[in-house]
Amino acid sequence: MTLPAGGRDSVAPLPAAFERLFRAEYTRVVGIANRILADQGEAEDVAQDVFLSFYRAHPADAGYAPAWLHAAAAHAALNAIRSRTRRARRETAEAVAPDAAAADDPAAVVSATETQSEVRAILARLPERSAALLALRYSGLSYEEIAAALDVRASSVGTLLRRAEDAFRREMR
Amino acid sequence: MNDEQIERALAMSELKVDTEDALLRFRARAAGEQIVPVVVPLRRRAPTRLLQGLAAAAAVVLIASGLALSGAAGSILKIFEPRQIVGVPVTPSDLSYLGGACANLQLQQCLGTYGTFTWTTPPQPKEVPSLTAATNAAGFTVQTPASLPSSVTGQPRYGVINQSSATFTFSADATRQAAAKQNRTAPPLPANIDGAKLFVTGGPAVVMVWGAPASASPSDPTANIPTLVVGQAKAPVISSDGVTVAELQAYLLSQPGISPQLAAALRAISDPTSTLPVPIPAELAISHQVTLQNGAQGLFIGDNTGIASAVIWQRGGMIYEVIGSLTEAQGLAVANSMR
What we know:
The complex is a heterodimer.
Chain A: H1 16-37, H2 40-57, H3 65-83, H4 87-94, H5 106-125, H6 128-137, H7 143-150, H8 154-172
Chain B: H1 3-10, H2 19-32, H3 48-65, E1 67-68, E2 77-80, E3 84-90, H4 96-102, H5 107-111, E4 115-121, E5 126-128, H6 131-138, E6 157-161, E7 164-170, H7 172-181, E8 197-201, E9 205-210, E10 228-234, E11 237-240, H8 245-253, H9 260-267, E12 275-281, E13 285-291, E14 297-303, E15 309-315, E16 318-324, H10 328-336
Parallel strand pairs in B: 1-7, 3-12
Antiparallel strand pairs in B: 2-11, 4-7, 5-6, 6-9, 7-8, 8-11, 9-10, 10-16, 13-14, 14-15, 15-16
């Protein structure tokens, strides 16, 4: 990519409404993508793409903006994890589960890493909405926020979430 | 596994995100790629080119599904009947050879690259005035969406594509000539494929179009920009008198310009006799598998801006599709409401 003279710091700000939206939602969008990808670098790439898609086509002050970004982050991350066959190899080589990060026991680290890989593989296999539900819920979104993102009734989120968790449990066995 | 264990399984280390640095990167990218933001409230209309592309894809699938079995001899074996649908990303380079062979040609002429395509009964799309008329013409119960996004208003217009039939005969001579026109050398057609015939069965098909101008024909969705297209057709069935899907797949994969990625994607189809591969332009769109509430497995296709999308699925020997200026959630909601 060719940057304007003076480097990226000299690039003019974007419309104020968009920059407010970016600052308000970027961390959460990265968090949702990272919940699925287990890789912050990749999650930030996904977040950049998601914001770019939004920036191209939607007004920053649209009421649906946060919900759109949350859903797009989940779907884009799920797409990424499904399409990358190299993921399993890289996770095996690099990923360390949070609980094992500080462990001194190499066997525990290996076991936690395998669990991480399995969890991501399960998310990739689950039906799209179930995987997105889990990612959004465990990223801290409220039922109302999940309902807005996935275009379902808030009163249905609890039921759908339980089904998604059941499906996740079955896959983990 | 309890909720706490699920939470632990999905847990990630706390992120340290530098939002300001990310915003600087975003500004630089937007400037470098000369991307301009939307400055007026968006009407949920898809880019013309993309929606026309999706509509054209719909037309191809429906017309292909509108082919019916020609009277076939006893030696004919059914070699293809779709029971699942997958997306296969293709790049411009993947299509450089076939695209060159088929530039500005109709489907029939394009297939002439590999042999002779003959309509026994050609498809004749027509508009009908009502759902009842569409049901009567199609001969099956036409499903309609019980709920529509608020952006889709008014009554749909109905198009019906009749049952029709076609035969395709492979020809080594035609293959050689088509390759020579592009100064290419195609792999020779295997002897057992040369002269073999394919018979295609399926159809009829019904298309419902919302938002189409009154002057446009709903049976030709490429002629206008509808907000929503819902189509359904009897799934195509292909029979052959001597060639197998595995042989055809092997020959396709040997064509010039097929990338290793596309070849791998096609080889990864575990059962090519029952899997309908839908080409997805890698530069323009994404796709992934979806499961509808009724358990049907389908394919979601969305453009990179997230504005236009399509959902295609198969159930009970029928192929359905929902295409429009819809988010994924809206497209799936329409698909799930089909009754």
